[in-house]
Amino acid sequence: MRLWVGILGGTLFSLGCAGSQASPERQPAIPPDGRVVRLKVQVLPTLAPGGHDEIVVGFSILPGFHVMSDRPSKPNYIPTALVFDAGNPTDIVLDDPHYPPPIPFVLADETIRTFQSEGTIRVSLNVAHDAVAADRALKGMLRYQACTERGCLFPRSEPFVVPIRIQMAQ
Amino acid sequence: MKRAQAIPRRFLICSVLLATFGGCHPGPAHDPGSPSLEGAVRPEWGPPQAGDSAPSFELPVVGGGTFRLSSLKGSWVFLHFTASWCPFCDAEIAHLGEVAKAYESRGVKVVVVDVKEPLAHWAKYAAEHVSPSVVDLHDSTGATAARYAPPRMQPSFQDRAEVVLDSSLLVDRQGTIRLFVMPDSAHFDPTFKGVCRELDRLLAAEAIR
């Protein structure tokens, strides 16, 4: 019995060591589409003129990566920012986004504020009282700058669209 | 009693044999005879790496003028790729100036290359953070940085300039790369102690010759 335990232990030890050898991907791999953050926009109910609701944008960050938070530790770091296109319909007014709390990441003697794994960004939305009933599409993007435990990637952005249907109140 | 002693010995023998022949050995060294630094570029990733000629380049100097790597033949070059927004790079940038001052009298030039960010943005940051002892260059397209990316390293990184961001190289007086290392937060060394140790060793070996 102990012989088998010895063989198993030695094998696992060897495999562990083999895994620590150089691999071409010394950082987590980037998928072919280059995206390390995925977004999921919650579907909004139909809104009436004068109505309000909340845009909920969920994000998931690939394992092994983190992104700077919306309020990074230093001004030269690039904050994660949910931004809407300037050309979006003007009868839908958006408040400033609310981001999740940051997660600390320790780098030498510095602790930086990051987002990791998953989170949700919320934006309050108000429909103007004189808004015309129609389908709209609010376009925007999530700007972020990702790093791993071994280095950083260039800043990227992930586009998204929020479909909005405005109907006259019954 | 005797059997009870024999089993642990077998356990020990199996473990040692498997560990020895089962793959627990270091990867190829970046430069035979030199200490292996964490993050050193591996031969199987392809050129450039230690032993290869440093790819030549010509880049604008921040503040005016043009710099050619070939102009420093006869000097040692500590070449570092950086960006102001990169936390790893930011933790290191002030220490590049310290290295430049410490090694200036020994014929070492420290050269920093900012990769793919707007010049005005970098210049503002550099004015505050990059020592005047450091040669400050701007690689607006990332083309120079990409030439330093070993082709089989991080093959999933389509923008090859991204691969070498925050890497450091030591280039000798003949233009040959003697050390090429990448960062790693588990062994993060923002003061470049490991690179300087290697530089000391290389300069000492040169003095003996």
CATH class category of chain A: Mainly Beta
Order of helices and strands of chain A: HEEEEEEEEEEE
CATH topology of chain B: Glutaredoxin
**Most strands sheet of chain B:** 5 strands, mixed
Structural class of chain A: mainly beta
The best one-word shape of chain A is elongated
**Tally of alpha and pi helices of chain A:** 1
CATH superfamily of chain A: Thiol:disulfide interchange protein DsbD, N-terminal domain
Question: Strand fraction band of chain A?
Answer: 35-45%
- Name the CATH superfamily classification of chain B: Glutaredoxin
Strand order of the largest sheet of chain B: 5-4-3-6-7
Q: Structural class from helices and strands of chain B?
A: alpha/beta
Structure description:
The complex is a heterodimer of chains A (170) and B (209). Chain A has 170 residues and is mainly β. Chain A has one helix spanning 2-19, and strands spanning 37-41, 52-61, 66-68, 81-84, 92-94, 103-107, 110-116, 118-127, 134-144, 146-147, 156-166. A 4-stranded antiparallel sheet of chain A has the order 1-2-8-5, with no helix packed on it. In chain A, strand 6 (103-107) and strand 7 (110-116) form a beta hairpin. Chain A is elongated and about 60 Å long. Chain A starts with a helix and ends with a strand. Residues 9-21 of chain A have low confidence and may be disordered. With 209 residues, chain B is of the alpha/beta class. Chain B has a single domain (2-207), classed as Glutaredoxin, CATH 3.40.30. Chain B has helices at 2-21, 87-103, 119-129, 143-147, 193-208, and strands spanning 58-60, 66-68, 76-82, 108-115, 135-139, 168-171, 177-181. Chain B is globular, with a radius of gyration of 21 Å. Chain B starts with a helix and ends with a helix. The interface between A and B is large, with 44 and 53 residues.
Task: Summarize, please.
By secondary structure, chain A is mainly β.
Helix-strand blueprint:
The complex is a heterodimer of chains A (170) and B (209).
Chain A lengths: L1 H18 L17 E5 L10 E10 L4 E3 L12 E4 L7 E3 L8 E5 L2 E7 L1 E10 L6 E11 L1 E2 L8 E11 L4
Antiparallel strand pairs in A: 1-2, 2-8, 3-7, 3-10, 4-9, 5-8, 6-7, 9-11
Chain B lengths: L1 H20 L36 E3 L5 E3 L7 E7 L4 H17 L4 E8 L3 H11 L5 E5 L3 H5 L20 E4 L5 E5 L11 H16 L1
Parallel strand pairs in B: 3-4, 4-5
Antiparallel strand pairs in B: 1-2, 3-6, 6-7
